[in-house]
Amino acid sequence: MKKFISINEWDSTNQEKPKKNKEQKTYGCVMLDANDISDWKEKHTDGIDPKDVYTKPYDDSYGLEDNPHVTVLYGIHEDEIDPEIIMDLIQNDIEALTVTVDEISYFEGEEYDVVKYDVPVSDQLQQYRDKFENNFSNTQTYPDYHPHMTLAYVNPGEGKKYAKKLEEPFELTFRKGVYSFHDEEGEQIRKEHVIPVNE
Could you tell me if residue 183 is inside a domain? Predict the structure, then answer.
């Protein structure tokens, strides 16, 4: 089984990182943030037993997720593409995405499990993924798209206890488009666009 690499692990700015080797390939990621979940901690991550939470010293990219989001496409060859071109597409072609979440599942790993909400692959979300995948150079290591929203990183073997169908499915809207990439020094940069919503 391939090791699951989380967006937080890839995207962490909270640890000392070596300077980018010019020969090293780095990848960008397009995400949609669910930036209006006011009760994220109280209703979504407080259900994770603190004894199960996986952490690493000097690295707070693990633990409980505090930035709920869904990945549209990870693996963009960021050194080949002007970030502003990607941001133009986000600003002009991406609309708010509303989904209904009805299940918690998990990824198993040797070092940790990832507890997550499954995000349904709507026609709209698949269209966005196809748009970025077909228009920008990228590398994909998994053949299938399984969008999700991470809740927590937990100790190995603990993820399965949280997997369930929700008794009360809930609706949420992703209202922020994000492109995350690295500069020439290897520092992570986030460019964001708040998507206007017609009420």
Answer: yes
CATH code for the domain of 118? 3.90.1140.10
Whether residue 63 contacts residue 125, with contact meaning beta carbons closer than 8 Å, is answered with no
User: What is the number of structural domains in the chain?
Assistant: 1
Strand partners, 69: 33
Query: Rounded to whole angstroms, what are the CA distances from 132 to 93, 94, 102?
Result: 11, 11, 27
pLDDT greater at residue 126 or residue 9? 126
CA distance 120 to 122: 6
Structure tokens at 21: 């080797």
User: Is residue 127 helix, strand or coil?
Assistant: helix
- Burial, 129: exposed, middle or buried (Cβ in 10 Å; 0-12, 13-18, 19+)? middle
Tell me how far apart the alpha carbons of residues 22 and 96 are, in angstroms, rounded to a whole number.
37
Is 12 part of any domain? no
Q: Radius of gyration of the chain from Cα atoms?
A: 17
Mean pLDDT of 41-70: 93
Range of the structural domain that residue 172 is part of: 26-194
